[in-house]
Task: inverse folding
């Protein structure tokens, strides 16, 4: 079986990305896996919200990496869809992403934040590793970036294993950070130094 390509998110697909993120968050807690502090009943995302998020994503994609609030993303598409099916879907068949964001303060421009997600149907197929590898390779080519940071729920053993294999180290833990669907959730902060 040929694995789907890992692709750059383009400005033309900013709206599709917003739809994908909405769908991904709606999947939170399904299949017994909580990965976001946003509960599905809190998702009151309107078409205007999707449009606003698409514009914000497009603005971030246009910003250079040495400027505030830049953004880049790698995506993977559902390999079972035909090109025609992909075109008809509002999310353009996206089934996973790694989202990279720049700092909001000038004093933190040497750091990037990474967030990653896959639909439940796309997990345990190697897509997460491939998305992470693509993101880290790109980040290491950016001379202004020294660190990449992320957070993960402490119960997400698969994600923790993936990040630790890639060299991320735990830099902090917030006990009882969130309460989602009646569960107390600890959040772990992880960081990876990209260069000395």
Result:
């Amino acid at each position: 079986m040929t694995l789907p390509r890992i692709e750059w998110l383009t400005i033309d697909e900013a709206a599709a990305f917003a739809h994908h993120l909405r769908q991904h968050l709606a999947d939170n807690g399904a299949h017994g896996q909580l990965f976001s502090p946003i509960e599905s009943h809190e998702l009151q995302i309107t078409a205007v919200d999707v449009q606003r998020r698409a514009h914000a994503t497009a603005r971030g994609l246009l910003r250079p990496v040495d400027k505030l609030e830049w953004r880049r993303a790698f995506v993977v598409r559902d390999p079972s869809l035909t090109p025609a099916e992909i075109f008809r879907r509002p999310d353009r068949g996206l089934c996973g992403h790694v989202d990279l964001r720049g700092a909001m303060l000038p004093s933190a421009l040497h750091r990037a934040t990474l967030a990653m997600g896959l639909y439940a149907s796309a997990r345990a197929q190697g897509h997460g590793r491939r998305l992470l590898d693509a993101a880290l390779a790109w980040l290491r080519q950016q001379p202004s970036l020294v660190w990449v940071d992320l957070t993960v729920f402490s119960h997400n053993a698969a994600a923790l294993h993936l990040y630790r294999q890639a060299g991320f180290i735990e830099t902090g833990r917030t006990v009882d950070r969130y309460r989602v669907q009646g569960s107390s959730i600890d959040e772990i902060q992880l960081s990876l130094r990209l260069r000395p």
